[in-house]
Amino acid sequence: MMCHHLTTALILILVYSIALLNCCCLALNVLVVGGSGRVGGSTVRWLKTLSDRDQYPISITVGGRRIESYQAALRNKVIPSEGVDFVSLDIDGDESVLKQTLEKWKKSCSPSDKDCMVVHTGGPFQGRTSPILLRSCLEMAVKYVDVCDEFDLAETSKVELHQRAQLAGVPAIVSCGIWPGVSALMAAEGVAQLKKKRESSNEKVEIESIDYSFFTAGTGNAGPTIVSATFLLLATPVITFMNGIQQDREPWTEMKEVDFGDGIGTKPVWLLDNPDVPTTALYLNPDEKPPNCSSRFGTDPLPWNYLFGAMKALPRSLLYNRDAMQNFALFSEPIIRLVDKLVGATNAMRCDVRATNGDKVTLRIAHPDLEQCVGLATAAFALEMVKRDKQTVPPGVWFPSELGDEARKNILEISKEDAFVYELQEV
């Protein structure tokens, strides 16, 4: 009888050990669309770095139109020289062909649906109107993250596909990255700080305003894509909120001087469209009146700011032509690279949150290199969806500002890496 019980116990231990071994060894399969570019390549590197640090097996594939771009990224060490595969796909092409490509990629991965994810870094997003990649992922039960900085497209993803994602049991986060993305988490953290301050007195805290300010030296090493995206934004009305109502304003107007902290100082910034504004105003506290909200941006060297202002004189049809602006940015790449070497690649963010009772909190984060920190932030959002111990991002399509406290704090903690300014202070 004792021998029988011992044998049964040994079998149970063996079965448990095999299951645990399979769980631990099962790799996360990630397809990084646009992974040959500067932002996508940085995301690939950070996915690998963070996964290795946590001893989380990961298999990464880069998706893009041209294998030549992938090969160039390998040669230039934009992506690791080993362990990163390539799949040819065109997110702006035929949707049925895109689905077939994704299905083929998924079949080549782990048999577990839960361990596949698509990270979409293939910008610029301006001019796109349909979230076909997200829709395709949901049909195949594949987790999804993107760095979309076009609110109309992000809102379409939310409105049309949120319920579908919930029914499919698939989590997805749109408009991630450093800004938009971590910047929205800064706003959410600021709001949480102000509400917690008055928690003991049971005082209801209403948020009066959320103001975003951003500064990037040159292109932040992110290259021509960020330049072409800025040109496209110059043709985009700036969404702001005032007295609870959305008000569209003229881009690159209403300059302000903003202090970004030690090592950067005060910089001029101008109104520029940013999906963080409507997503935080409308979704951070959906049961409350939207706070006043706006977003501004500035760059170095100073003449570049006036160049952007002058670009507004061009016809909007030309500024909003994705191909034309991307080609112009590529044509200007030698000058862009030279300027980047002269002014550096600093990225700085500031978020000011004020309550109606006069309480105020300011959060600042600055990194020495935009290319590095946007990849870090994007990887942090992606890996938060596959936490081993606890699911902090439930099924659905979410904006960063909607994430729960635990997910927000986890992502902010990772995003602090290499930051030379990280401040949260009441004024």
> Helical content, roughly?
40-55%
Instruction: Give the CA-CA distance, first to last residue.
Output: 73 Å
- Using DSSP, what is the number of strands? 16
| Number of DSSP helical runs | 15
> Order of strands across the biggest sheet?
3-2-1-4-5-6-15
Largest β-sheet summary? 7 strands, parallel
Alpha carbon gyration radius: 22 Å
Question: Which word captures the global form?
Answer: globular
Helix and strand content put the structural class at: alpha/beta
Query: Which regions contain 5 or more consecutive residues with pLDDT less than 50?
Result: 9-25
> DSSP strand (E) fraction?
15-25%
| Average pLDDT reading | 89
List the helices and strands and how they pair.
Layout: H1 2-25, E1 28-33, H2 38-53, E2 58-64, H3 67-75, E3 84-88, H4 95-107, E4 116-120, H5 132-139, E5 143-146, H6 151-168, E6 171-173, H7 178-197, E7 207-217, H8 224-233, E8 238-242, E9 245-249, E10 256-259, E11 266-271, H9 276-283, E12 292-300, H10 302-311, H11 316-319, H12 322-331, H13 333-343, E13 347-355, E14 360-367, H14 370-384, E15 396-398, H15 405-415, E16 421-426
Parallel strand pairs: 1-2, 1-4, 2-3, 4-5, 5-6, 6-15, 7-12
Antiparallel strand pairs: 7-13, 8-9, 10-11, 11-12, 13-14, 14-16
Helix pairs in contact: 2-14, 4-5, 5-6, 7-9, 7-14, 7-15, 8-12, 14-15
